[in-house]
Automatic annotation (TrEMBL):
Protein name: Helix-turn-helix domain-containing protein
InterPro entries hit by this protein: Cro/C1-type_HTH, Cupin_2, Lambda_DNA-bd_dom_sf, RmlC-like_jellyroll, RmlC_Cupin_sf, TransReg_Diox_bact_type
Record CDD domains: cupin_XRE_C (cd02209), HTH_XRE (cd00093)
Natural source organism: Actinomadura rudentiformis
PANTHER family in the cross-refs: HTH-TYPE TRANSCRIPTIONAL REGULATOR, METHYLPHOSPHONATE SYNTHASE
Any single GO CC term annotated in Swiss-Prot or TrEMBL for this entry: cytosol
Keywords, sorted A to Z: DNA-binding
Length: 203
């Protein structure tokens, strides 16, 4: 079942505060680095904030940690089934992300997301930790990485250094894709691997 909005906020609050302290940053310095208001950061650490994709990506970039380090919960063993209906959506300006699974193999960690780019919408990112992989399932997608643009169709793949500024634009209708965020284990803030949780749905 999907985690409740309140429990997800509690996870983010605890993880954000721990990450900030471990990085030796004040709220003011994190605000400067992430370009997120100090009052907003205080709310997030207090468990009363309502994060968007843009907020989480900015925090990941500023703290230099994987997104799943900010939004994690314990992972079970054995068979894992994730139902789309049970996963709350993290929405941004142009996309909706559903976290499905975290996979660890050797010194690599891959977080798997169902990604939907809304019709006629564009989602931009200034960059964040990790390597980004996208496989288009349906629709036409324009991916911009730094100053390059590539158009993808069903079955096409793109991979790039996620630290570079990048963006997604849906052409002539919505785009359904699988997003994989790959990290090195030494980039993790915590020693124990956890599964990305259901994220907070934004209005």
């Amino acid at each position: 079942m999907g985690a409740s909005e309140e429990s997800v906020r509690d996870l983010l609050a605890a993880n954000l505060r721990r990450a900030r302290i471990e990085r030796g940053l004040s709220l003011s310095e994190l605000s400067r680095r992430s370009k997120i208001g100090k009052a907003t950061l205080s709310q997030l650490e207090g468990g009363s904030g309502n994060p968007t994709i843009e907020t989480v990506f900015s925090l990941s970039r500023a703290l230099e940690v994987p997104i799943s380090d900010l939004l994690d919960q314990p992972r079970g063993n054995g068979l894992t089934v994730v139902r789309s209906a049970d996963v709350q959506v993290l929405s941004g300006a142009g996309i909706d992300l559903r976290p499905l699974r975290g996979i660890e193999s050797g010194d690599a960690i891959v977080d798997v997301y169902d990604q939907q780019v809304r019709a006629g919408s564009r989602q931009d990112s200034l960059g964040h930790v990790g390597t980004e992989h996208t496989v288009v399932q349906a629709g036409r997608l324009v991916v911009r990485v730094d100053d390059r643009e590539v158009e993808l169709g069903p079955g096409d793949y793109i991979g790039f250094d996620a630290r570079l500024p990048h963006g997604y634009t849906a052409l002539a209708g919505p785009v359904r894709s699988v997003l994989l965020l790959q990290y090195r284990t030494d980039q993790r803030l915590h020693g124990t691997r956890t599964q990305p949780p259901c994220l907070v749905e934004t209005p």
